Amino acid sequence: MNIKMKKSKYLKRFLVFCSFSIIIILPVLGQKFEPSWKSLAENYKCPDWFRDAKFGIFMHWGIMSAIDENRDYGGSHYGRYMYGPGEFPPDHERSQWARDLYKWHTENYGHPNEFGYKDFIPMFKAEKWNPDSLVAFYKEIGAKYIVPVAVHHDNFDMYKSIHRWNAYEMGPKKDIIQGWKEAAEKHGIRFGVSSHLDRVSSFFQVSRKYDGGNPDYADFYGSNYNIEHQKDENWQKVWYARTMQLIDQYQPDLLYFDGSLPGIYGNMKYGFELAAQFYNSNMEKNGGKLEAVMNLKHGPDKRAFIWDIERGQAGALQRHPWQTDTDLQGGWFYRKKEPNFTPEVLIGNFIDIISKNGNLLLNVGLRGDGTLPENQAAVLREMGNWLKINGEAVYGSRPWLVFGEGPTKIESGAFNEPNADYTADDIRFTVNGGFLYVFLLNPEKNDVVIRSLSSYLNLSSGIKSVELLGSEEKIIWQQTREGLALSLPESRPSKYALVLKVSVDDLSSQYWELIIE
């Protein structure tokens, strides 16, 4: 080995060892973001592409997708509950789930010491996976971005990783994330990834009584680290290195975390350093323009990230752009069951979300072989057909001064999403291109009164025309003190929500834009 090679080798090691220090001095070298909530919040602004997109596809896919599709439980937490209920009090609901799954697993695959979670890996083959055709389908039904899971709580990386338990070396023996990225770029939609890595050691804690206690598999089950993962700096270093590899290697536009920013507890700054590097490297890639989105479930300042509400919605119009993530499959990872939503409810919820300045990230559960079940695809096609008619009221739209009217009240918060039809009096609004769009969420009546457009309220004045998107029939309307009264035609362009395009002299949309800026 010559001297030049030695210098290169040691320089590389030195740079890796000093990576945190390098990140800290990046602002001095002209980078915008520093590793703190204050810097992230003061310098971040949601990119227009995300605000315009409205609709993305989430994909939970991995080891759990290949387990028997007829299991009664065990969607995204199979590897946690298959080892039994040791982490919960006996009377806790999840203890019963774990008891049931432990029994089912033992009867169908064997005792966890004989057949542990690691033994499912060879069953996950992805033999029919075609990312090009799947992403083409997602684009056809109106999705503008995709977010495949890069690593779930089960510690199996779906990419060519520095962590030996990964899909490139095991199972499918394919770089799954690279395949999604290439397909997204080919079809011109945005590419994101999600990481659920930080909770591995707590997720697999009960496995330590079984095969998780074997030193040969400790790096898979997180058995070398403290169950209280947020306080274990050694684990946070592992989390940082693997997540930075994901960012550097695949350069996603969107990075989703299943919680708050990992690695920021007990005076640690790994999470802040990673977030700053994600934003700074994205700006460097885009010639100084920030195009990055980071989804968090919570944090002290929502200006620093895009707030994500898991399986829930916002009760009111939000000042900052946000996102709902929910699951069409009904168990996140695939198992055989009917979709969690009808098209009517899914479209109604979607409209409510965008009227309040939000996006919808909708999860589909692919089979272990990489195919999309037809019952999920059918719901997506219905939504896609509706978007083809009404897309101008959705894509690129912004909230109006009021999000809507009607009796259905949405409670803010996670795990609280509506799953029932909206009423005939539920109405939502957006603005786009100088027009006001009025969504009739359940248009079962022919005669409609839109009370927010009352001449008395003066939220808009000088209504010039009213059209029904997808229809050429003339709409008969009149603006009165009670509201904008109109009659819908007998022939409807869609069996789901209908959208009116209203032209007015004074839309007042610019006032809302001033508020949110």
From TrEMBL:
Q: Per its database record, what is this protein's job?
A: Alpha-L-fucosidase is responsible for hydrolyzing the alpha-1,6-linked fucose joined to the reducing-end N-acetylglucosamine of the carbohydrate moieties of glycoproteins.
Gene Ontology CC annotation, any one: lysosome
Q: Where is the Alpha-L-fucosidase C-terminal domain?
A: 421-502
User: Do you know which Pfam families this protein is assigned to?
Assistant: Alpha_L_fucos, Fucosidase_C
Q: Name one GO molecular function term.
A: alpha-L-fucosidase activity
Q: Which organism is it from?
A: Mariniphaga anaerophila
Mind listing the UniProt keywords for this protein, alphabetically? Glycosidase, Hydrolase, Signal
Q: Which GO terms describe its biological process?
A: fucose metabolic process; glycoside catabolic process
The record's family statement is:
Belongs to the glycosyl hydrolase 29 family.
Glycoside hydrolase family 29 N-terminal domain location: 31-392
Q: What is the recorded name of this protein?
A: alpha-L-fucosidase
E.C. no: 3.2.1.51
Q: Does the keyword Signal apply?
A: yes
Q: Name the top EC class.
A: hydrolase
